[in-house]
Amino acid sequence: MKSFPDAGQISKTIFALGVIGTGLVAIPVLAGASAYALSDAFGWKQGLSKSFTRARNFHMVIAASTIIGLLINFTNLDPIKALVYSAVINGIVAVPILIAVMKIANDREILKDKINGRVSNVIGWITVVIMCIAVVILLLTWGHQ
């Protein structure tokens, strides 16, 4: 088996450039996703192809998201803790969203004859129960490490 020489400093530089490149790709994607979500929620005109004057709120959300993301770099906020807290919030919020999805997926008034089948209902409600249990365990053990 052929061994490769230690790449040394160049490997660190290439890795750092990869992380920076990933961040540069993620920033506009996240800002755009926020703008589309808020525009959908509030009924604003949206679209990157629309001018600033035609979709002012949409473009303002993109600008604000980018500026807020930039300003976070100058705070003492620990990015790993922020990711953990964000995941915790997402896990807690997921429970009522899953319940709403399951209710809608079984509502004949909304979906007519396209409601969930038995297998989808069993898997869906098991998921809701597991998520509920996980949230309860999280809340009972948070801070007891």
Give an account of the 3D structure.
With 145 residues, the chain is mainly α. It has two domains: 9-75, no CATH class; 78-145. 73% of the residues lie in helices and 0% in strands. The protein contains five helices and no strands. It has helices spanning 9-42, 56-72, 79-105, 108-111, 118-141. Helix 3 runs antiparallel to helix 5 (118-141). The radius of gyration is 22 Å and the shape is extended.
Number of helices, counting only DSSP H or I runs of 4 residues or more: 5
> What fraction of the residues are assigned to beta strands by DSSP?
under 5%
Helix content class: over 70%
SSE order in H/E notation? Answer: HHHHH
Count of folded domains: 2
Task: Name the shape in a single word.
Answer: extended
What is the rounded Rg? 22 Å
CA-CA gap between termini: 45 Å
Structural class: mainly alpha
Note the main sheet. none
Structure summary, number of beta strands: 0
- Average pLDDT reading: 88
Identify low-pLDDT runs.
none
